[in-house]
Design a protein that fits this description.
By secondary structure, this protein is an alpha/beta fold. It has helices spanning 3-7, 52-59, 139-145, 156-162, 177-187, 203-207, 212-218, 231-240, 263-270, 282-289, 300-309; strands at 67-69, 88-91, 102-105, 114-116, 147-154, 174-175, 196-199, 226-227, 244-247, 293-295, 313-318, 328-329, 333-336. A nine-stranded mixed beta sheet has the order 1-13-11-5-7-9-10-4-12, sandwiched between helices. Strands 2-3 form a two-stranded antiparallel sheet. A two-stranded parallel sheet has the order 6-8.
């Protein structure tokens, strides 16, 4: 029996859902996991919280019809990070021909704005989300469902500026769980169950100001600010009961893994089976909690509008690629206000 079978349709009341310290809710599931919460064979994890009722309520947030597209240019960053290779764009047919087609050679779905699907990261001990076999999860499940609901923006970059501690985009500057919550509080933003949490670090805006030589140097190896990789971040995300989390930096969390630890600490952590989760919180968020991760989302224009109006919410939609057994996808996401 799943948690949802016991309580019926998941309600807005946060108390109806288990806290992080109450996980797991199914006997035999790993500690700190949502496995089994939505029944066997689940492919959606926390996306199950994007119910029709919540989509209907979020649609009421559309007041002026302002649309904010959250995809960056497909060739940004250029060159790609994490040693990914750039794609080439071929337009078929001659200049005087009757038609053209696009052909992308060597395109990586994670080269720019992206959702990390449940096939992207496995837990070092427990494997893929829900204990599924390799290849069970695919981005096509999310595409066939479609994603719609309420988005809230946590403009951490603006909040840190106001604290006199601007985010350092050249370093692994950590954003703690407490800072995310303080940002939401300062904005007057009340989180709700099933929100898509968007976290602005200002990284994409900073990146666009770099010279091509500076960008070129980042291709093989780079450092970026982001969420702190400790367990408190995972606990904060779960206890907010978000449907998904996304940011405008390359990795959501700080990069590289271990940047906040000494060499001796890293060696000790890596010497303990499964302890790499202490360095890389992706391994808690995706395969244990089932919270989709978005990276390199365009958030600056949305943030400007939020600051101007004093409201930090909107109607969110996303249509991932319907790629069978896909690992990841551009979000094709919009926020409408």
């Amino acid at each position: 029996m799943s948690w949802q079978d016991e309580v019926g349709p998941v309600a807005s009341d946060r108390s109806i859902l288990p806290s992080y310290t109450e996980l797991p809710v199914v006997d035999g599931a790993p500690q700190g996991s949502s496995w089994g919460m939505w029944g066997e064979g689940d492919r959606f994890g926390c996306l199950n919280l994007l119910t029709p009722e919540r989509a209907t309520a979020a649609a009421e947030l559309i007041k002026l019809g302002r649309v904010f597209a959250l995809n960056a240019d497909m060739a940004t960053p250029d060159p790609p990070l994490f040693n990914r290779q750039p794609f080439t764009h071929e337009v078929t047919g001659g200049d005087d021909g009757p038609s053209h087609d696009d052909v992308l050679h060597g395109w990586n779905t994670q080269g720019s704005s992206q959702w990390d699907g449940f096939r992207h990261i496995r837990h070092p001990l427990h494997g893929w989300y829900s204990g599924a076999a390799e290849g069970f999860h695919g981005i096509d499940a999310w595409a066939e469902r479609g994603l719609a609901g309420r988005a809230i923006l946590a403009d951490v970059a603006l909040w840190r500026d106001a604290q006199g501690r601007p985010i350092d985009h050249t370093k692994a500057d950590p954003i703690t769980a407490e800072e995310v919550l303080a940002t939401l509080e300062s904005q007057g933003t009340q989180p709700q169950v099933g929100d898509v949490l968007l976290i602005r670090t200002g990284w994409l805006g900073w990146y666009r100001q770099l010279s091509q030589d500076e960008r070129q140097a980042m291709g093989p190896s780079h450092t970026n600010p982001g969420l702190h990789p400790d367990e408190s971040t995972a606990q904060m995300l779960w206890d907010l009961h978000v449907a998904a989390v996304a940011a405008d930096n390359p990795s959501l969390e700080v990069w590289p893994p271990g940047a906040l630890h000494s060499a001796d600490e890293i060696a000790a952590i890596r010497g303990r089976p499964g302890a790499s989760v202490e360095l890389f919180i992706h391994q808690r968020i995706l395969p244990l909690l089932g919270i989709p991760i978005g990276e390199l989302f365009e958030l600056d224009a949305l943030a400007d509008d939020c600051a101007a109006t004093g409201t930090y919410e909107g109607f969110f939609t996303s249509a991932p690629l319907n790629l069978r057994q896909g690992v990841a996808s551009p979000p094709n996401a919009l926020v409408i206000r």
